[in-house]
User: Fold this.
Amino acid sequence: YAATYVVRDIDECMLPTLMQDYRGLIKATAASIEQQIANAHTLFNLCNMIIFLPFVGIFAKTIRKIIPDAERKEPETNRYLDTKIIALTPIIAIAAVKNECIHMGNVTEKIMDATEDVFFDKHDELKETIREYENQLDAIHKSILEYSERIFHAGISDDAAQSLNRYITCAGDRERIGDNCKKLRRFYEYRQSKAKDFSEEALEGVRGMFECTHETVLAALQALSTEDKAAIDVIGMSLKVREMEVSLRTMHMVRLTQGTCDPDTGIIFVDILGAIEHIAYRASKIEMAALAKSKLVKIA
Assistant:
């Protein structure tokens, strides 16, 4: 934006001195006023490009000195993954991975909250927050994978490897939940770009499905923290979400048949249901990994 204003100001300074010649040139290009106006715009932009193109590098540096770029906030990669621990006590390093997964779960809760606020309550100011949380989940997941690879190379028992694999799986499922929250943000933006939104009946059904999924995710995240049977049956709740998806999909097809659903907006309805159901599916995988019945090393 700053560059645009600077170019415009330079043009305004130069144009008065060249206006008479410019008018004569434009009049010579066409007979009709409409065509002269079109030619004037084209020639003006072409001249701008020819004049400023050789100075793009210098121009960009000057603009950045006048108005510095805003500082970019890098996503937090991890809190607990200290590489020095691996060589000393690999078992404690596995505990660090578990703690990082729990930290990742906290970010997952936040992105679910922000997604609900944006998608259903139209809090547009939180759209960027969803992107930041999703980037953070990606960064933490990558850190966990790299850290875990070092632990495996350090040499650990089979039971310890099983525990570590559980945490790696849980981290991956959290990252996938973030991916689907990002999808829902894009679907919301698509809805906003259309003249008509979903019907109240459709939105109410989707909200109910999302709220059930949200509860499923929270219960699954708690399961890893306690490594005990969750108060809410996550597997059962994820199956309930799946049933809700089938029901809402059927109702959507009925509305399309009856002509009560706008096809232009409704084209993404099934995709939205699929994204929400996939979040619940990932939550069930988190619980299954957290409560695995195989022989495991107890990690403090």
About this structure: Residues 147 and 238 are 31 Å apart (CA to CA). Residues 158-193 form the longest helix (36 residues).
